[in-house]
């Protein structure tokens, strides 16, 4: 309260001093205001800029610190080794669905991704992960019926693709309250990838085919959750919601024709098909 009175008094006197120059005004003495360093001429108190700055510094607002209750979820110096594996297979025999008729074929996709991470600070770490993906599709027959006179057939289609990826990432953990078993993490990823694939259609003398090579760059934000089963193992679930992707593809058809394709995309949405499950070991 005393500081506030001093600040208001100094402000009023400053305005009077600058706005009414040349006039004589009776003011409180320096002893009454308890201000050091003032200059007195007769009965008039002169306020100096140093006095104003001193009064202002005494009334600085203290910084407000928000108190969020949390604990160290993953301590500094810990190594994290992880592995995720996915596999899907589908078999069709004369399958029909709306305009798709007489679908017969087999497909499968396999992907394995090991990773390693080091915690350089409490709940903060960086690491790298690798991934290999193989996809195979064999289509014996399929018909697309658009109407009585519109029907398109695709027979004896074969596709095989191999892709390799290397990803550098930064991860930040945070717990819920004081829980050390259940928490969330946020991961920033930068991924480089490449691969090759081949595609053929037809049989015998009517066969035609293409060979492709591709390069990809992906930058994304991947949030997830972590559930510790024991002190050294945990289940992780993550989903990509924000990212930028660039892909360049070169296609050689029948060893004669060369084509190039480039694509760029950015998104901010939850893709249910990008949900990944994995197991991590905290060493």
Question: Secondary-structure blueprint of this entry?
Answer:
Elements: H1 2-19, H2 30-33, E1 39-41, E2 44-46, H3 49-57, E3 79-97, E4 100-121, E5 124-147, E6 150-153, E7 157-175, E8 182-201, E9 208-228, E10 233-238, E11 242-253, E12 257-268, E13 276-282
Antiparallel strand pairs: 1-2, 3-4, 3-13, 4-5, 5-6, 5-7, 7-8, 8-9, 9-10, 9-11, 10-13, 11-12
Could you give a short description of this structure?
The chain contains 3 helices and 13 strands; from the N terminus they run H-H-E-E-H-E-E-E-E-E-E-E-E-E-E-E. The chain is mainly beta. The strands form 2 sheets. An 8-stranded antiparallel barrel has the order 3-4-5-7-8-9-10-13. A two-stranded antiparallel sheet has the order 1-2.
Account of the protein in words:
The longest helix has 18 residues, at 2-19. The chain folds into two domains: 2-57, no CATH class; 79-282, Beta Barrel (Porin), CATH 2.40.160. The protein is mostly beta strands and 283 residues long. The chain starts with a helix and ends with a strand. Helix 1 packs antiparallel against helix 3. Strands 3-4-5-7-8-9-10-13 form an eight-stranded antiparallel β-barrel. Strands 1-2 form a two-stranded antiparallel ribbon. Helix content is 11%, strand content 61%. It has three helices and 13 strands, in the order H-H-E-E-H-E-E-E-E-E-E-E-E-E-E-E.
Rounded to the nearest angstrom, the distance between the terminal CA atoms is 57 Å
What does the largest sheet look like?
8 strands, antiparallel, barrel
Q: What is the highest CATH level, the class of the largest domain?
A: Mainly Beta
Class from secondary-structure proportions: mainly beta
